[in-house]
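Lab notebook, bench 4. The sequencing result for the construct came back, and we need a structural model before the next group meeting so we can plan mutations. Quick request posted to the team channel:

Model the 3D structure of this chain.
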Amino acid sequence: MFVEVRRERFFGFTEANVLGETVQMATRERALLDALDRPQYAGGLGEVSRMVSRSWGKLPWDALLELLRRWKESALVQRLGYLLDLHHVEVSAEQRVALESLVRPGSKVHLGARGRWGTSGKLVRPWNVVVNVPHDVLVEKGERLKRRVTFEKPESPRDS
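Done. Here's the predicted structure in token form:
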């Protein structure tokens, strides 16, 4: 399957050697933005959510921010910002300000495609994202368990 890319969005690629041929391949940060833009080609929104969670520390922040600026799509930034917050990804104050500066004032977007997920959901600020996708689609079961604090019952003298 081929997905057409508008000429003004043909950036974020590098040359790679594949089976002896030189081809244009998306950088990691470009691949993440492509997945956010068209999650249906990347395993769905749940998989994209997990990509954000797993890949954040591996992406060069400056390159990602530059691609977001060139992309000129507030919805992309809003969805990325929401997913970063959802997964408790640590973002410096400077990085957060840079992301928020790319959000178009008054812009409100749905996290998932309205045709598939509907239009109702909670509006999450500051990203102005309507979360119309169930939480369990976006977060792996194990991920929720990592954040749960459990206490072990101390052994009683009778157990010894």
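The longest strand covers residues 13-18.
Will bring this to the meeting.
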